[in-house]
Hints:
The chain has helices at residues 6-21, 30-36, 53-66, 79-88, 102-105; strands at residues 42-49, 70-77, 93-95. It is of the alpha/beta class.
Amino acid sequence: MFHFGLNSFRVIGLWCCILITCSCNDGMNNAEQRSENTHTSGNLRLQADDTFEPLLSTMIETFESIYPKATIGLKYQAQEQAFQDLVKGNTDMLIAGRPLNQFEID
Length: 106
């Protein structure tokens, strides 16, 4: 069983708020994105560290059942590969247990 501290729940709570309030991106231009993606519909490419799987799978399933027009493509993998995909633009959002380092920010 996984042990999550208070900080983990804060991070996950923050990402839940972002998931609910952000517009999703599926490669459309800005005009199409505004018309097709809303707070409750559209597509989001999300990657997460393997350790978040027990919580995220339930949260995403619940979100998608409430908002059937929203699709969250979730891929679990090691943090380093997920950060590389984020930098390359292969994912829209990343949930991980560490902040970006200076190389990833630049």
